[in-house]
Every structure is written in C-alpha cells, then in structure tokens.
Amino acid sequence: xxxxxxxxxxxxxxxxxxxxxxxxxxxxxxxxxxxxxxxxxxxxxxxxxxxxxxxxxxxxxxxxxxxxxxxxxxxxxxxxxxxxxxxxxxxxxxxxxxxxxxxxxxxxxxxxxxxxxxxxxxxxxxxxxxxxxxxxxxxxxxxxxxxxxxxxxxxxxxxxxxxxxxxxxxxxxxxxxxxxxxxxxxxxxxxxxxxxxxxxxxxxxxxxxxxxxxxxxxxxxxxxxxxxxxxxxxxxxxxxxxx
Length: 243
Description:
Elements: E1 4-10, H1 13-16, H2 21-39, E2 42-49, E3 53-55, E4 61-63, E5 66-72, H3 82-86, H4 102-116, H5 126-155, H6 158-168, H7 173-205, H8 209-223, H9 228-240
Antiparallel strand pairs: 1-5, 2-5, 3-4
Helix pairs in contact: 2-4, 5-7, 6-7, 7-8
C-alpha cells in the first residue's frame, strides 16, 4: 500500500501575485478538507514551489508556481486505503471507460471552487487540450485533403507521361530539354510534396498529433515552392508533345 498520496496543484502566476499568503493557505486548506470529506484521505500538509519553471525560446524564464499536496493514504473511519478506489475510472453512459478519471476531474472542480474567491479560474485539463489538438488536426487535414486531392490527380501519371513523350520525341533536342525540365520539377518538387502529404495522412490515422503538426510545416514549405497553376501549366506543356 502507498502510504502517501501526493499530487500537484498548479497555480496561475499572474493571479498568485495579487493574493496574500493567508488567502492562498486558506484556499489550500479548504481544498484538502474537501478531498478528505469526499474520499477519506487524511491531510498531511503541503509545500509551495515558486522558483521552478522553464526558459522559453526567447531565453526568458517562465515561472511555474505550484503546490505539492500530501495526504496520508488511509481512511480512519472506513479503515481502508482510499487510493485504491480513486484509481478506478468506472464506466460512462456508453459502458466504456472514460478518457479522464472522473475522480481526478472532481478534484480539479474542488480546487477551482476553493480558489475561486481569490479570483482564480479553472484551467483546461490535459485531456481537453488533447481533444482540441485532435479537432484542430482533423480540421487542417480535411482542408488539406480537399485542396490537394486535385493536385494529386494532376501529378499521379506525370512520371509515365514524361517517359513516353521522351521516347517519342528523341529526335527533337528542344523538346527533350523541356521534358527533362518537367521531369526534374516532378522529382525535386512535386513528388516530395506528395510524399509529405501521404505522410500527413499516416500520422493523422495513427493519432501522432505532435508529429503531424511538425510534418504540416514541412508540407507547407514544399507547397510554397510549386503552385497548382504551375502544375496545370506543366500539363499543358505535355499536351503539346504529340507523337
């Protein structure tokens, strides 16, 4: 059995600067009392951490004030470990395990209620943030697919067409040079863009949101090198080369 149940209460730096120590202490004590009343954990105390954080891309230190909350993992009335029950998610209305543990969600509700009188507002849970990232990815991908499916159709047979035309028009050096330019454009600009687009689809299907967003930047950079107008112009050039 884990004797101590510890978790972190993250606080807004901006809002914290407007509060006095007593107000923060009272809010944390109220939070610990409500957790004890709800689940049976015995409060042991807390420690404030005000000097931790990270450096952003501009080299500026960004503080991350938070409190480590400690509970004794034992309900003296029921004579059992509350943590065991706390880790059980249960089932939602559809009979499936919910994405977020409802006990921890309720803890966030209690923390928000305890700190509301100090002007704090509840933050967005990690699960909600991931949901928003997923929705953003779906929106970006749907727009990308719609716009570039036509491009994919324009270029999917470009390789074979170029080879055919080269064989037919070997007697004309100028024609060959133009075809080689088209072939070079296809290999150096068009095909990498198609590969990046297909990679976007794979990353989305495998729910790799962070890598999806990185690959999206790569795709945009490739896309800027060639436009749909360029592709249509290349298609018109190919049509001029008749056997």
